[in-house]
Amino acid sequence: MLRSIPTVTRKDRAMDEAALLDILGNENRRNILKLLSLRPFYVTEISERLHVAPKAVISHLSMLEQAGIIAFFVDERRRKYFHIADNVLLEIQISPFSYDVEAANPGQKEPSAIEFSTPIGEIQLNTRSLADVAETLDSLRRANHELMGAQRRVQELMNEVMERGARKIDRISRDFIEYDILSLLLTGPKTVHQLSARIAIPALILSERLRDLEKREKIRRIDANTYGLASREISSSTYHTHEIGDN
């Protein structure tokens, strides 16, 4: 298995929004998270892909782990693999009248069904008096909270579907580079430059892998510089919304 993450008990923990913003403000940490969104990596892999010294990588990983964003497991060769620990949704709202930052774990406390107490189109913008303005704002805040809950539920479903796609990619990939390429193309067509930037491998090596995957009919060339999943792979992937489970 190229993408194997042991099942762990999910822990509910409060997210420190200010700390998250500070952590994500560092480009190297953001690049590490981009890599880990593909699959688990160990320190040497991260260092080689991002051209960052191992000591610096370890420091960044430690900070991400302490914040609860990533976790690790140890394989049979005693290598420590790091992976994103859980789904985190960071919502930032800035307007002339508000500043709000909220971090949440999608799906932990949201109902399976998406329901709204008052349809947004039925909310009356009653502003005749100051009390009316306050009441209308309260209704809109409730609607906004419900909308965010729906967004988190959709994100949870997207993650579930992506996980099914990852298992399929795991079965057809010959190595980690193929896995990374197919994982990125699962979310839509990408240019060679986009793939090279995300996977962090030389363009020459990437071009060779793309040609091989195209020859094996795993991917298709959309234009001179853009690739997508081959039709046969799409038909057996998570794009079919009627798919219930995975064997």
The appropriate CATH architecture of the largest domain is Orthogonal Bundle
Say which CATH homologous superfamily of the largest domain is assigned.
Winged helix-like DNA-binding domain superfamily/Winged helix DNA-binding domain
General shape: globular
What is the CATH topology descriptor of the largest domain? Arc Repressor Mutant, subunit A
Strand order of the largest sheet: 1-3-2
- Major pleated sheet: 3 strands, antiparallel
Q: What is the CATH domain class of the largest domain? A: Mainly Alpha
Number of helices: 9
Number of strands: 8
Roughly what is the average pLDDT, rounded to an integer?
A: 82
- Taken in chain order, the helices and strands follow as HHEHHEEEEHHEHHEEH
The rounded distance between the terminal residues' Cα atoms is: 15 Å
> Which structural class should the secondary elements be placed in?
alpha+beta
Low-confidence sequence ranges: 107-112, 234-245
The count of domains is 3
Report strand %.
5-15%
Helix content: 40-55%
Please compute the radius of gyration using only Cα atoms: 21 Å
Spell out the key features of this protein.
9 helices, 15% strand, disordered C terminus, alpha+beta, Arc Repressor Mutant, subunit A, three-stranded antiparallel beta sheet, 8 strands
Plain-language structure description:
By secondary structure, the chain is an alpha+beta fold. The protein folds into 3 domains: 17-84, Winged helix-like DNA-binding domain superfamily/Winged helix DNA-binding domain (Arc Repressor Mutant, subunit A, Orthogonal Bundle); 106-172; 174-235, Winged helix-like DNA-binding domain superfamily/Winged helix DNA-binding domain (Arc Repressor Mutant, subunit A). The protein is built from 9 helices and 8 strands. It has helices at 17-24, 27-36, 43-50, 54-66, 130-172, 176-186, 192-199, 203-215, 231-235; strands spanning 41-42, 70-74, 80-84, 89-95, 98-104, 190-191, 219-223, 226-229. The strands form 3 sheets. It has a 3-stranded antiparallel β-sheet with strand order 1-3-2. A 3-stranded antiparallel β-sheet has the order 6-8-7. It has a two-stranded antiparallel ribbon with strand order 4-5. Strand 2 and strand 3 form a beta hairpin. The protein is globular and about 70 Å long. The two termini are 15 Å apart. Residues 107-112 and 234-245 have low confidence and may be disordered.
